[in-house]
Predict the structure.
Amino acid sequence: MEKVWIVLQESNVDGELIINPTPCKTLEIAKKVLSDEKELILNESYHFGKVNNTDDDIAEFEIEESDTSFYINDPCDDYYEDIKILEKEVIVKMG
């Protein structure tokens, strides 16, 4: 068996759920993907991009994060981003 890390991104945009898995060969690569996605959300997202503009805007959102996860929610609207790294074992078929 081999290990694989999956960066699982779940987005809720106006009630529409979007799930995007990204498989990675190492935990380090998965952490980089998570970091890149987090920065994209905070800096370029139409909805969450204003987080970095002022301290007042930050108070509007709920944010939780760790080394292997990032979650941001707009409690007043129907938007959230939930990104987490999942470690999985896969069976490699020998041919």
In short: The helical segments are 27-44, 55-58. The chain is about 25% helix and 45% strand.
